[in-house]
Amino acid sequence: LDIETKWCPAPGCEYAVEFVVGSGSYDVNCNCSYGFCWNCTEEAHRPVDCATVSKWILKNSAESENMNWILANSKPCPKCKRPIEKNQGCMHITCTPPCKFEFCWLCLGSWSEHGERTGGFYACNRYEAARQEGAYDESERRREMAKNSLERYTHYYERWAANQSSRQKALGDLQSLQNDKLEKLSDIQSQPESQLKFIIEAWLQIVECRRVLKWTYAYGYYLPEHEHAKRQFFEYLQGEAESGLERLHQCAEKELQIYLEAESPSKDFNDFRTKLAGLTSVTRNYFENLVRALETGLNDVGPSTSQSTGIKNTTSKSLGGKSKTGKNRASAAGSKSGSSSRGVDDSNIWTCDQCTYVNPRSAKACQACDHQHR
């Protein structure tokens, strides 16, 4: 085997990580629990490629977004050309010192030439007349484009950041569970900790899925808008995975708390075990489908999603398996999944009555729980 070694890039970590060259995914895990990409040493970002991650990180910190904001929300002072933000309803603008030039926000003319005869404080007859003649069309078009671009970026960035925040919170909850809550639950429910591993597995899955979901928003930002079929299929798979994750997270966070606060063993704790383990498995499958689709460039989508989902029936492998030696994670594969509620023709899919997992029509049994299709 061709094995390479690198120092873990996590702050304060002194471990070295081994990697088997040519073994598939570049995502590796160090013994310190930090996951990173072997190729670019950024944090683990599967299923998004290194080039996309590099562009996204640069965009998040670049001046380009500041300039977009300035273009969308400000205008240059007609005298000193510095960008001025309008923060009140009045069109009478005074530039900041030392300039202090007074001008009209709409037509950018000197305010000394304005007054009641030009429309007053909240309008500008000169601007309206010039606009009708097309004098301001180009500058307004550029400002509108910048505003739309900024709103689109904000949409993806906020969701990227929200999943990062949720992942950090989940990591904290997992650590708290391992440090003391699992022992407490073991005492309350009169079960050995070895029988409670399903809870740890659920939280590990949540942490991994939050990471994957975070990076799918960077992927979505750079997915060409003109590729409508791919975009529809991507949003469909992403939505199904996100819904599954929310159900799992809700169960692991809220419903677990009921049993932690109980004073004696609960009769329905085994039902909770079955539910949480089932949700963990189903959510893993949803994310395997999403990861596989993105890693293959959404090539499984047909020419028109109104005619076909492009679903293929393939065998699933595990997503996000942890390697103590730092070797790469297992690659993900799986059938595309989802429901007809997201704009995809339901003639090619069926929903499991038992676990709600969405399967390709060709599957005779549910790929999540093995329940037979009727």
From TrEMBL:
Residues 312-344 have a biased composition (Low complexity). Pfam families: Ariadne (PF19422), IBR (PF01485), IBR_1 (PF22191). Residues 298-344 are annotated as: Disordered. Residues 1-128 form the RING-type domain. Its cofactor is Zn(2+). Keywords: Metal-binding, Repeat, Transferase, Ubl conjugation pathway, Zinc, Zinc-finger. The keyword Repeat applies. GO terms for biological process: protein ubiquitination. One of its GO terms (molecular function) is zinc ion binding. The keyword rRNA-binding does not apply. Residues 302-311 have a biased composition (Polar residues). Its EC number is 2.3.2.31. It catalyses: [E2 ubiquitin-conjugating enzyme]-S-ubiquitinyl-L-cysteine + [acceptor protein]-L-lysine = [E2 ubiquitin-conjugating enzyme]-L-cysteine + [acceptor protein]-N(6)-ubiquitinyl-L-lysine. PANTHER family: RBR FAMILY RING FINGER AND IBR DOMAIN-CONTAINING (PTHR11685). Belongs to the RBR family. Ariadne subfamily. This is RBR-type E3 ubiquitin transferase. It comes from Aegilops tauschii subsp. strangulata (Goatgrass).
